[in-house]
Structures are given as C-alpha cells and as structure tokens.
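Project standup — Tuesday

K.O.: blocked on the structure for the chain from last sprint. Re-posting the sequence here as requested.
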Amino acid sequence: MRFEIQFSGHENIRSNHQKTIEITKESHLTPSGDCIIGVNASASCAELPTSLKKKLQNPNSKVTLSIKVGTHEFNVKGKGHENLSLTHLDDIVIRKSNFVCPRTLAVKCDKASDLIPREMIKLLQNPKTIGTFTITVD
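H.V.: unblocked you, prediction finished:
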C-alpha cells in the first residue's frame, strides 16, 4: 500500500535532528523546529486512509518512506507499531526510537533528518520548493 503527501519548503528548515523527521500542515516554522523538513503538507496522521493506518498499526509491517525534492530522493526504512493512534491533525513524525504519540507514523527508522543530503535541505529552504513524502507499507 502506498500514499503520497505533497509539502513545501520554508526558509527556517534546518533538518539537524538526530532522531526524527517531521512534516506538518502548519505554514509557520521557527528555527527551533529542527526535525521539520516540510510545511503546508497535504495530509496529517489523522487524514491517512483507514486501510493504511491498519497496516501501520501492525508491528510486523515494514514501512518505507521516500522523500523526493527535485531530482533528489532520500529513503528511510522503519516499522509499524500496535500502539500507533495516528490521530494528530497537523503533523507526521517518523522516529528512530520506539516512542509513540498521536504524531508518530513509524518507529525504529534507520535514518533521521540530520542525514538528509544538504543539497536537498538547501532546496527545501526555498518556500517555492515542492516535495513529495511517500509512505509505502508492506
């Protein structure tokens, strides 16, 4: 199962966080939001299709997250978790840890925002840049 979310860049994107990656429907971003790689997202956890949520709530699910910006692509592998509520109205967060909250989409991910290539981040610091966040669950 696959689901795509569009998002846009913002001048305050830093992408330095070592444990998470986040996209948000919010349009405002302060420099302290150092895990956020995109704003104005077309969907949040709460808006994911029910069938996708059910797959994400299976701890045996393998989750692949693909972030595409221009000609660049960054892929992250993670896992589902039985306690995911996927109810947050604005945000989607993927985590290296096993921490779960309403914003969490996947846990035990193999990468965080600090590993995203700086060329991608430079593009995302332009508010006119559009990116795609693709969720694939096996």
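K.O.: great, moving the ticket to review. The domain at 2-137 is CATH 2.60.120.630 (Jelly Rolls). The first strand starts at residue 2 and ends at 8.
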